[in-house]
What does this fold into?
Amino acid sequence: MSPPSSSATASASATASPVSKDSSPIAASSLDTSGAEPVVVLRSARGRIVGPNVLLLGTAGWSQQLDALRAGTGASAATGPLQPLIARIAEGRPIWFAGQVPTKAAVSLAPALSGLEQVRGALDLSDGLGVELALGMRGEDVAGATLAELKRQFEALRGAGIPPAILDRVGLGQTGREVTIEVRLGMAEIAALHGLAEAMRPAPAPAPAPAPAP
It folds into this structure.
């Protein structure tokens, strides 16, 4: 997310003014200009602009660690427990994520994902839409069972009207205890998906008939 220009920041006079009345997460954000620097407010999270293309966003529990990073005294997540996951993310991806999944959270997911321990992924926007996702399971046998279930569910989509040209751009695989999901959609496939979504949208309800004249 690119920061606002200096002129845009200076012209913002409202404190925590909503960006939009839309219900989407980005539209639900606001900009607090009451302090020494603008702060992006997104529900319980707070974000500060730290570079031309960097927005540092975190919840209140991470405020001290994030402030330390900004001051140059904190430790990067790339040097902590997430280091092995982050190291396997392809370079140059504009959007990426990596995290560990608590056991209590994993067991609340679908049965095929109950053994999930780690997750990493990235988006590649250089030519259409590329999605790279890796699910770190409890063991190789669990990963194999998860992959088999995902393949079964994926094949069921072929009977749901999704064009084969789109499904053929999705790859499912396994490397050790990781289940990998890769999606590569060009602009033609994205347009086809948009058309399919429009076709599946329910027709609007007819307008009520006008009341008879007295």
User: Anything to note?
Assistant: The helical segments are 6-11, 63-71, 83-87, 103-107, 140-156, 164-167, 187-200. The radius of gyration is 23 Å. The chain has seven helices and ten strands.
